[in-house]
Specification:
It is a single chain. The strands form 3 sheets. This protein has an 8-stranded mixed beta sheet with strand order 10-9-11-1-12-13-2-14, sandwiched between helices. Strands 3, 4, 5, 6, 7 and 8 form a 6-stranded mixed beta sheet that branches. The chain is an alpha/beta fold and 414 residues long. The protein has 13 helices and 16 strands.
């Protein structure tokens, strides 16, 4: 048997989505615009990084070729042929959010419409807030609008500490986020509040309720902690994770993966705070994974810290840091292993607003014995999950199609 390793670089899109205009994202390209910005000196930050974007290991796996395929990225003249199996994929789900992208990657596209909150103040229905206050015994809420997670804590954090009222906010995603102080409000109390609100918004078809704990005493010292918790609705049908678990395999979920799938089909949950800590935990899991297992990691910093904050130098530096450590992941692979690097959506740090962007994503596959070839642009992220299903020898799901024939070559339809 063999093992599989699925690593999502959260928000690392490569442009070119054919339906980007319908989402208001025409022309967005997370990787391409970061690359261009760095080449023009707009990715420089004193003490952080400078110069052109340097991703030699991702490039060797076909990143530049995948970007060229997806959105016409201009290949530098010296670009070598990739030493991997590579391509791109486009999303068919109705949303461009985290659950939609991840569920589709795991073989279950989102064909229904999520519920969303309007761009107005207050953003949430009066009855929802009243029920939350009553059931959770809180004196009220503050915020109650669309906002950036860091900005709203700066704006309301001191009032929250003074009044005990939690901070409610949302975005263009199907989400309620609730920020509260770990000490003054209490971490477990925040989790209990989020669990109550999760039940209240089920009739509204809201995808996630997210606990956003923070510490600090003043606006200048507030910072969010790594104790975030997502309360997600479960996928509407069995995902790759469920199917692997039913077949007796272990799914090791690292970072927020367990929360994204409402902990369905997850055998082990391992938390860590920050990309490098997540990578450290991934290396441990790779050492411990047995034949037939899946290690599934989301590297959240790209999206949370840099994409949404429209921070080009920060995003570029995070990519370069990941690239420098990519050989450590590759070195853990043994014959018949499969590693796939991909993304769940875009979040172009040069684009208008602060929200996700609809983009194609890279799909870079590496493992001893895999061919060095392209499988083109796949019509759905579900092909990623079905490829892993083929590789690990379980029955195919209802959506998507593997781009492997057996475990070692592109399929004839590639």
């Amino acid at each position: 048997m063999s093992r599989a390793f699925l690593f999502v670089l959260d928000s690392f899109g490569i442009g070119g989505a054919p339906d980007a205009k319908a989402f208001g994202d025409e022309g967005s390209n997370t990787f391409g615009h970061i690359y261009e910005a760095c080449a023009a000196g707009r990715g420089d930050r004193t003490g952080l990084r400078s110069g052109p974007l340097e991703l030699p290991n991702l490039q060797a796996l076909g990143l530049l070729h995948a970007a060229n395929l997806a959105s016409g990225f201009a290949l530098p003249p010296e670009t070598a042929v990739p030493s991997a199996l590579w391509g791109a994929a486009e999303e068919v789900s109705n949303g461009k959010d985290t659950p939609s992208g991840h569920w589709e990657i795991a073989g279950v596209p989102v064909t229904f419409n999520w519920g969303y909150f309007p761009q107005q103040i207050p953003a949430f229905p009066d009855h929802l807030i009243a029920d939350a206050m009553r059931l959770a015994s809180v004196p009220g809420v503050i915020g109650n609008k669309h906002a950036s997670g860091t900005d709203i804590i700066d704006e309301y954090g001191e009032e929250h500490i003074r009044t005990g009222k939690p901070i409610f906010y949302t975005s263009t995603d199907s989400v309620i986020q609730i920020a509260a102080h770990e000490d003054h409000f209490g971490l477990e109390r925040l989790y209990e509040l989020c669990a109550i609100v999760r039940k209240l918004v089920d009739p509204l078809n809201i995808g996630r309720v997210i606990a956003r704990p923070f510490v600090g005493e003043t606006r200048e010292t507030f910072r969010r902690t790594g104790n975030r918790r997502d309360y997600s609705v479960p996928p509407p049908e069995p995902t790759l994770l469920d199917r692997l678990t039913a077949a007796g395999r272990t799914v090791i979920a690292i970072g927020k993966i367990g929360d994204i799938y409402a902990h369905k089909g997850v055998g082990q949950v391992r938390k860590a705070n920050g990309n490098m800590a997540l990578l450290d935990e991934t290396l441990i899991a790779m050492d411990e994974a047995r034949d037939g297992d899946l290690v599934f990691t989301n590297f959240v910093d790209f999206d949370m810290l840099y994409g949404h904050r429209r921070d080009v130098p920060g995003y570029a530096a995070a990519l370069e840091a990941f690239d420098r450590r990519l050989p450590e992941l590759m070195a853990r692979l043994v014959p018949e292993d499969l590693m796939i690097l991909t993304a769940d959506h875009g979040c172009d740090p040069t684009y208008k607003g602060t929200d996700h962007t609809r983009e194609r994503v890279p799909v870079l596959c590496y493992g001893p014995g895999l061919p060095h070839a392209s499988f083109g642009i796949r019509p759905t992220f579900a092909d990623i999950g079905e490829t892993i299903a083929t590789h690990l020898g379980i029955e195919p799901g209802l959506h998507g199609k593997s781009f492997l024939k057996g475990t070692g070559a592109p399929s004839p339809d590639a």
